[in-house]
Amino acid sequence: MDDLLKHLVPTNTFISGFTTSDHIKHASLQHVELADKPLGVHKVSSKTTHNIVKPPPTVTASPNDPHAAWEAVYPEGSINPGAQIPGGFGFYLAGPPSFAKQLETATEAIFSYRMMLQEGWIWVKGGKLPGIFGGVGDLSYACTGGRKDQRCQCFNLRPMWRPEGVGELYAYLPLTAQNSAQLSAVPPRSIENSDYGFSVGRGAYHFTRAVCGWITIAFRVKLNDVGSNNGELQLWIDGESVMSVGGLQLRESADGKIKGMHFQTFFGGHGNEWASPKDQRAWFSDVTAVVLQ
User: Where is the Polysaccharide lyase domain (predicted)?
Assistant: First the structure.
């Protein structure tokens, strides 16, 4: 596999999947247009846009640079898609119908995309980036924003940038002592936030090379067997594994499923101290996913 495919699908074997990248040809990957309907986009934030644009050229142009991308706009003073000044965007993505059907029985999958931040990006205190989600039925959509009710029925895993581009994984998992112990042990620093999610592996990677250049973010999630703490999650940046956690409980029952991507990005946190200090933009492309088992 070439480097782009290795970054988007960092595994040697998989059953099937899809990609929106025009640069990847693989017999087991369905090519899908970067558009809402073909990708099963739903529950779209009504106050923001995710227009498809031609992204700006990178500092070191590559033949594999995306031709089209979703553009996120973070206006000055914006905090999140639902705030008084909406910023970023938010929606859920299940993939094309054939892939979404496979997820109903899948126990392990990888989801990935490429992203780029505008020149002169200002990090402020931090912000969220697209990740993955799952759970039991509609409860899978109710795992973020500090919610504690029914947290045993869902999971949500999204990257987050902190000041100076320090990266972490922001995790909402069932509130169990085992999950807390496993996530707390992830180096170099992990912090349990009693009212919100879990900051996992802060400083394990950096987003600085995403400024004026494309980086690839890939996630692997493996559901635990019901009644066991053998779930797993893994994060790669440009094909390098920067975080791998086992011994987790992602579901209580067989009704807990991998649902797809929570494609959300914004500045925050909560409160004006998180807000973007100027109009800023980011671009997201090459959405890819595969089922491993």
Answer: 67-287
141-171: pLDDT as tens digits: 988 765 556 667 899 999 999 999 999 999 9
Residue 191 structure tokens: 């912090």
The span from the CA of 55 to the CA of 88, in Å, is 16
Whole-number Å distance between alpha carbons of 284 and 128: 13
Nearest to 18 by CA among 31, 6, 27, 9: 31
Neighbouring-strand partners of residue 236? 218, 241
Strand partners, 166: 206
Provide the token pair at 144.
């973020």
Counting Cβ atoms within 10 Å, is residue 131 exposed (0-12), middle (13-18) or buried (19+)?
Answer: buried
Distances (CA, A) of 159 to 115, 126, 172, 219, 243: 12, 11, 12, 10, 11
Domains of the chain plus CATH, in order, are 3-7+14-291 (2.60.120.200)
Give the C-alpha separation, 145 to 142, whole Å.
8
Q: Are 281 and 118 in contact (CB under 8 A)?
A: yes
Tally the C-alpha atoms within 13 A of residue 158's C-alpha that lie toward its C-beta: 24
- Alpha-carbon distance of 266 to 269, in angstroms, equals 9
Q: How far is 148 from 219, CA to CA, in rounded Å?
A: 24
**36-45: average pLDDT:** 97
Tell me if the pTM is above 0.85: yes
Q: Which helix (H) or strand (E) holds 179?
A: helix 177-184
pLDDT, tens digit, 9 for 90 and up, residues 250-280 = 999 999 999 999 999 999 888 889 999 999 9
